[in-house]
Structure to design on (1436 residues):
């Protein structure tokens, strides 16, 4: 019953096989001069139906930091949700990567920035005045920290507001695949077609060992972005020397739609988990569309579930209606992965049934 | 005939197997809370015969940057050889990681800082005056950039000078295993027993996919170092989420002395390559003790060798006697890895024989 | 009718005279090795009844940045009010000076952090977890951005909460003199006796040309702070070479209680302005104790006052009850200085009387 | 007998008078929105015969840092003389301002980068390779650290080499006036007409209290530079709030060619000092054209001069022929200012005559 996070999972055997194959291929140029890396860029270009400059990195924090540093100058600000990973969970890495840009959190339900709050914040910004760190970029997260799936319209509404102030948009796509699997649209429709300029596409949580891609869409139109990333990545210590091993992970993950299949599998387990929660007479905090769900539990029930072997994270963020849980409540976060088994879900259902009477 | 670099090699099958095993073990806590990570710290403590705090990172540049940031404040300087990797080849990553410390290069034969130059530089430093970035740390490289093996005495002589000014010592050990394999001493004798405070132990070049260890010796005596590294690593985007996969690489590499066996194998191929060079009537720039060797070739001969299929790097650094090669010369660097075959060496010997008459 | 800011005023003649005297004294060591600088440290030590290490700087932004950099590491956070100058008005200078620390804004009436919010924020901080920029310092502002005078109890209540988490406290004292003049207590009682570790004492707004003092209280107990500031100041370009001219300003300002007399004069004009506002049937946003006051005006009235020649700043912050003014309202900020004349106040009263009927 | 530095001098009475006048003018907008500031830009534009964007700052270190940050990105390098102020004397401020760019020192006689060394360094730079911090800017110093006057041809030769690699040129003009006074040319001829993009024009050493101007030539052709400086200056804490007092210093210094008169006066005293040195049978290290001269003294003689009351700086840099003084030698630096009197020069001559026999 492990619902701690999808990065508690192992790697998918196909990805391990891809690593082994890449290794057996003999000598290959280091630092991205290899053929696997070239294929990654081609393949992502095909998937996203657009020219892409791709920079692989070993962690999501590195990928996000690089992307923001490519979009923002140190005297600028990144606008994101107040609970965004870049604002809360990365130990000021975006500040480090950008050389000290300000990360500014906006309110919004289920960790999605509220469009009217974004518009209002920008409308009252003293643009051009040196005392105020100027708006530099918008950052969205797909799935949001609270598990929301951002559909094309939602994204476009936010990026259009940003665009009015010449702000490019970064998307933290640590669970992009889970969002895509939950939507009936193409990768392009929730990225560049909706106004996203740079996507950090995460494979680690979706089945790889450690592989994230910073994807610059239409690099020819924004040559400074790819040019900056070339050096920013090395300087950040995020340019892996035996680079084929990052590229092989990404290729293995993308091959034969494995990435989507694994995301669908993870999402399906969350859907089953939701059924168990409801069977126990509880409610999910928000409808579960991806692989992350939340339920507001009594502290007693949370303890009982933990005692029964259920592992989950007491979420430090806000619940529905942006209400902070009381000291008697636990906002439990449940994350399923491609490895989550039906047996785990069933065991969780049983634990819920037992824990329930303790309320 | 690939002598470009040891990071052009693949990964050793035992390390790939260790990854697969770690993956199959099921759910494991992320970010280093797993059992593999705990074992790495124990094992390195046993190998180095000292308490160690270990921070794994995916690249050598990240490892070096983290170590220097743990030792130096932004208004300080790092003293190293003028051709050190941290000074030349990391795109100002040490400056980035330390928040802007100065990297100051010293002269010295075969990319080892000259002890008397180090002493003289420190002796004339205006210590305590705010105009001058104060000395913060000494950094050594094992093997040096020009392939020198630093023996215990050489290291101790340099660290003792540094110690007189309260400078701790960092060792960039990207090819530490090759140096150790070339020496008749223990790991402790060329690290903390010789005055090294933090070692960046590289496994990537020695057979892993992407794994480096920042090792703080005697962390209880210097608690601020490990405390800083805990946050520095996350903030740098160098904390890999599925951390067991870094740890498993390190464990696989260390298991049954594989790391030393692979280093010995690589060193042995360089020794054979040296024989071929001498057979061709050429001289190595410096005696080859590790897995990196150099020869000053005429530009014509370098081209002929390239044409025959020999891949090597025209080294941009200084040759013997700190002489810069002329435009008619190439200081060729040859690096062998655990994958270098006897056939490659033989082919290189043949190419040398053919290329020779073109001189 | 200039109520734009107290930094629109000139310099007090006694301070200009002090500059001229210092200049005529002939040759003097640069960079703070002069006798004026030594006297500043003595005099501030006497005024604050404590040993002090003093670092003069030409701007308040530099002083605040230096102080925060001396207290915080880059992976830490500074807790302050959400509308604090360091968070809003310094173009991310604190991020720049600290090397990327996070500035975290807390709510609270009249720009003073709410004690229970501070306590709650710290209580739920994941202390020791690498994902979260750790709490590093508390920052208070005296006068607050919204003109509040922080009395000894208020300060002590906040610093005690911070102290429980080992957080030192910085005080931005750009208008410290105005607060002191409004209180019946000693400088010590609203600084180190109430838990403040570093004070940025501003003389510029109070009558100097450009002079601020970073005061480290009890430097012997915290030697790392003064040591860091020595280099941080130079590195920031904030070490003025002809340093006697900074020191002479500070000495002239402090001499014969000029600083307090000027602050009292400025405060008195705000008190008179408040009477005019009330005579016009309007209310101040908060009781005016220092030299900064606010009134929520209709946009029409604000325009009428501007048309009549009254210069004031439409405040972009929150009004009473933390309510944001509507688009039909202007939260007008009025700042008086030691140069504000009775005639200006009278003219403002007349303008209010005329503008009033337009409502 | 004060030859320590020209920043040991006071301020010129005309500049103090300009401050007093500016103060008496009543209320003025802060942060550069005042009329004095506008006049500075006009006047410098007229003097340099070109459109200029001007950013005043209180220190030379701030001015240099700002200029370099406007020209370079953090993954780039600044090429300068190895003994340049920005490389040696600013406590890594350029690294701080630029966010970690590399400062790379070149050899050259009398602290002027050697043109052929510059060309060779750039020729072997691995342009476009991510491992190497890319060349970002050339920085020259006028007067050089060792007192050299750079004439138009010398400057043009160096900037032309830089231009071939698209490098803009920064000039640290802390003693620009002294150089101009020594040359028979216009300000334009040793700046933008010779390829300088940004000049840091220092008034502090030449008679002001604390005032330096960052001058961007032809800002319309390089809009990003002035745009960046607007925010960089505030963020660095270098935007003085009562900005008229910086501007008034600059206006007072420029008025009626005071700046050139003071520079000529300082230069003339150095010429007289040179005569005294030669009368004593000693030689200057280099011909003295500005207000800074050097002589290689025996340690004994240096002590004797000090004992006789002569204050000068034992220069830590290289002597003629780039030879480092031995422990028995002192490379004495003598700086004269507009305040240096004939009596001081005469007294120094007498001291030389007395000290001489001790050799």
């Amino acid at each position: 019953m492990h619902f701690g996070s999808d990065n508690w999972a192992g790697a998918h055997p196909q990805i391990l096989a891809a690593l082994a194959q890449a290794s057996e291929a003999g000598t290959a140029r280091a630092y991205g001069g290899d053929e696997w890396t070239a294929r990654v860029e081609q393949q992502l270009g095909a998937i996203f139906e657009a020219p892409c400059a791709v920079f692989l990195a070993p962690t999501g924090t590195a990928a996000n930091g690089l992307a923001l540093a490519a979009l923002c100058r140190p005297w600028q600000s990144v606008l994101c949700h107040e609970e965004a990973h870049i604002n809360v969970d990365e130990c000021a890495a975006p500040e480090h990567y950008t050389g000290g840009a300000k990360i500014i959190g906006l309110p919004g339900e289920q960790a999605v920035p509220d469009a009217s709050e974004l518009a209002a914040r920008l409308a009252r910004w003293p643009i051009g005045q040196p005392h105020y760190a100027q708006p530099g970029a918008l950052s969205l997260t797909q799935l949001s920290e609270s598990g929301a799936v951002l559909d094309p319209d939602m994204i476009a509404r936010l990026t259009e507001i940003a665009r009015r102030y010449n702000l490019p948009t970064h998307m933290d796509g640590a669970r992009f695949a889970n969002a895509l699997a939950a939507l009936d649209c193409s990768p392009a429709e929730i990225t560049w077609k909706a106004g996203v300029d740079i996507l950090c596409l995460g494979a680690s949580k979706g089945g790889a060992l450690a592989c994230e891609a910073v994807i610059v869409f239409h690099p020819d139109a924004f040559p400074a972005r790819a040019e900056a990333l070339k050096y920013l990545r090395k300087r950040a210590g995020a340019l892996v020397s035996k680079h084929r091993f990052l590229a092989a992970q990404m290729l293995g993950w993308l091959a034969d739609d494995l990435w989507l299949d694994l995301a669908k599998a993870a999402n399906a387990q969350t859907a089953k988990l939701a059924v168990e929660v409801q069977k126990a007479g509880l409610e999910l905090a928000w409808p579960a569309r991806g692989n992350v769900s939340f339920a507001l539990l009594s502290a007693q029930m949370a303890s009982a579930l933990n005692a029964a072997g259920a592992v989950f994270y007491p979420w430090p963020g806000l619940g529905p209606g942006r209400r902070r849980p009381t000291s008697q409540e636990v906002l439990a976060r449940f994350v399923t992965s491609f490895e989550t088994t039906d047996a785990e879900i069933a065991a969780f259902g049983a634990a819920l049934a037992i824990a329930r009477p303790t309320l």
About this structure: The radius of gyration of chain D is 21 Å.
